[in-house]
Amino acid sequence: MWLAEIKGDLPVLVVAEGLFMYLREDEGKDLVRRVLDHFPSGQFVFDGLSKRGTKLQKLNKAVQAAKATVHWGFDSCEELEAIDSRLRCVSSMSAFDLDNDRLPTGFRMTAKVSKVFTGMRNLAVFYRMNFRPSASG
Questions:
Q1: Domain segments of the chain: what residues?
Q2: How far apart are CA 132 and CA 39, in angstroms?
Q3: Model-level pTM?
Q4: Three-class secondary structure of residue 108 per DSSP
Q5: How far is CA 53 from CA 43, 84, 97, in A?
Q6: Selection from 76, 31, 69 nearest residue 51 by Cα
Q7: Yes or no: is domain 10-131 CATH 3.40.50.300?
Q8: How far apart, in whole angstroms, are the C-alpha atoms of residue 21 and residue 15?
Q9: Left if phi > 0, otherwise alpha if psi is -120 to 50, otherwise beta: which for 90?
Q10: Is the pLDDT of residue 42 over 90?
Q11: 33, 39 in Cβ contact below 8 A?
Q12: pLDDT tens-place string over residues 82-122
């Protein structure tokens, strides 16, 4: 496996932009655990869709343009922390909270609507998570 080719003796920063949503839930969780097992500590920085966001993927132009299918959605830091006791959520931010003045009109309008309809607010979220050795390890 490719992870074995990377030295695992130092902390690591894993940037997984546009990855986890395309994996099936079991594949994503397995990848996270393998990274945790390989490195002593570090951070994950990634974006993700909520479960509702995966159900609305036919409205997602980027997913449609790629002719892709998204599978794994998660709704909270707590849900991600439950993957492994070594994970801690440092921050999460809705994609609709970005400074979006230069983004396409459709995105800016969706961002405004998401502030009124809170169920839309977390369709797409950026996460930063720390991991450290477990207390028993």
A1: 10-131
A2: 9
A3: 0.81
A4: helix
A5: 24, 24, 16
A6: 76
A7: no
A8: 14
A9: alpha
A10: yes
A11: no
A12: 999 999 999 998 876 766 677 677 666 666 666 666 666 67
